[in-house]
Structure formats: structure tokens, C-alpha cells
Amino acid sequence: MIKRNKASISKCILHKVGNKFNSTKNAFSEQPIDFEEISYDLILPYLLRPFTSLAESYRFNHHANIDLNEINSYASQILQDDTDFVDISKHIVMHLFEQSNSAQIKTGDVIVCLFHDIQYEDYQTDAVGIFKIENKSHFFQTYLEQGSYDIITQKGIATKKVDKGVLILNAADTEGKIVLSVDNNNYDAQYWIKSFLNIKYPDDSNQHTKNYIEMCREFSKDVMQPQFGGQEQSNFLAKTVDFFKEHEVVNIESFKEDVFEKEDAIQLFEDYKKTYESDHNVLIRNQFDVSEKVLKKQKQKIKTEIKLDTNIQIKLDVDAPDASAEYLERGYDEDKKMHYYKVFFNEEG
């Protein structure tokens, strides 16, 4: 997550990247963009806005030596000395072109920028930004001709969101440079993250919190709901969120004791954890620090709703883990041969 209040752009260039599978070629600019004030004031927030709400960061990866990672090397050169900014930006586009390993990889505009005074955590730093614009939008342009207004249709870059973007900060920890990435046109997950950038999640509390909560969410859907019903599923999710809110450190044994009431559910959770790690190629730590910013973001993705086949939904508050057990009662009506839920309350809201 960054703040862009004081951020600025010192150099910015636009090239076009092709696709070797459909015979489209790269096209290069020879000079950086000389912005007018209006264009500059629009493009700065357009490029940086996607990174202001990110909770997770990445680090560069390479099978042999991290210095051999192409984008890491190019970004480092620009951050150390931007004299060869134009030539290095061309190399970045050529590297991107080489990753077009299928016909579905889209051509587009590539913007390379050198930013200054981006705030990350409690300090300001420079950064290299690389952005790929794959989708253009139609818009109407009005003009005056012979005393009357007319309309023509043009095609250009919409200023709402970047299709693909990466911000490489001139800041590092023990695992390397801090990298932020967005992909709002995710038709090929390997293309941008793995092939072009070759980045991975760091071994930190952000990633451990994300992995664990995502596993719990999938467990609730794959196991809790089919075997124990929607009420138990919602109880589990609410208790999971409550546990993370109440503990600075998650210990998996304490988690199981606090969240599960049935021994068979604990065994199902342990078995699911092993399968999940293998299927998703992730490591679920038995103990880790909780990341509050990741918890906040992940909580927004948790849906605690009981959907019934009678077109009725019961929505439960994820922040009230005891409400379901105390005020919601499940039963079976012998006359109607149907299950039912009884809801207790004092007043309607």
C-alpha cells in the first residue's frame, strides 16, 4: 500500500508491444513524453491509484541468482542512474514481447515511468513503474464546424483503471526489492506475474494471514457447508474472523480449540489443510503474526449467508460470532417434511 500525495514523475515514455504469435511487432518511442499540465495531472493518479489499496507485496525471484532477473536488473539500472532510461525502457518492452507465448496474449501500449517521493509505510522512496494498457475505450468528441456542432467517435485509454501494472520500489528488506503488482485483465495468470516479472510472495505475516484465511474460506465452502449446513459454515467463518481480531499471533492448535466444537470437524480441518497445501502449492504456517491490513481486506470477501432453496437468504454478521448459535435455531417440521430456521429478535431494524 502506498500514498501518492507527494509523488511525481520525472521521466515517462510510451512504447507499443506486439505479439510474435500474430505477427504484430513492437514500436518504440525515441523520447520521453513531454506532458502538458492537464495530461500530467490526469496520468499521475491514473497510474498510481491501483497501488494505494494493495495489502500484499511481492519480491523478485530467479532460479539461480536474483540479480539475473530481467526486470529487477532493468529497474535497478534506472533507479541508480536514469541516463539510459529510454534504451532500458525498450529492453523492458522487448522482454515483455518475448513472454507472448500464445496468441491470446494481447498487444498494447507500454508505459515506463520513474517516480519520486512515493510514500511506502513510513518513508518516501523512488520507484520504477511499468504499465501495460491492453483495452481501449470508445468515446465521443464534439467539435464546431461551420457554425454547428458535430460528433466523431474516437478510441483511447480510459482513465478508470490500469489493465496491468507493476511498481518496483527503491526499497528492500531481507528478501529483496519491494514489488507491487496489479492485473485487472487477468486472462493469463502466468504471463504477467511469472513469465514477465518472475515475482513471488514474501515469507511474511501478510502472506501467512492471507493464506490461512483463504484456506478457511475454502474449507467452509468445501467441507463445512456440505457436511454441517449453512449455519455451522457461517459460525465457523465468524469465529475465524473473531479469532484473528482477538489474537496478534495465530497458533493453529489454539485456533482449533477456540473455533471448533466437534472433534470430527477438527480432523476434517487437519486433513483439508494437508490437501490444500498440496493443491495450491502454499505453506500454511502453524504459527504466525496477524496482519491487520490483510485481515481487513480478507474479511470483506467472506460471505456469511445461508441460502435456502425456497428463495430465502439469511445474512449473518461476520463480526458477531455468537449471534447464530444464540438467536438462530434449526429444526425439522414433520408435517411439511421440510427443514426450518427460527430467528429470535427484540425489534426489527
What do the pLDDT scores average to? 90
Q: Let me know the largest β-sheet.
A: 6 strands, antiparallel
Q: Helix/strand-derived class?
A: alpha+beta
What's the gyration radius in Å?
25 Å
Q: Which series of helices and strands comes N to C? A: EEHEHHEEEEEEHEHHEHHEHEEHEE
Rough shape?
A: globular
Number of helices: 10
The tally of strands reads 16
Residue share in helix: 25-40%
Model regions low in confidence, pLDDT < 50 over at least 5 residues: none
End-to-end distance: 36 Å
| Quaternary state of the chains | single chain
The domain tally reads 2
Percent of residues in beta strands?
A: 25-35%
Q: Care to describe what's here?
A:
It contains ten helices and 16 strands. The strands form six sheets. Strands 1, 2, 4, 5, 8 and 9 form a six-stranded antiparallel β-sheet that branches. It has a two-stranded antiparallel ribbon with strand order 3-10. The chain folds into two domains: 2-133 and 162-202, no CATH class; 206-343, no CATH class. It is of the alpha+beta class and 349 residues long.
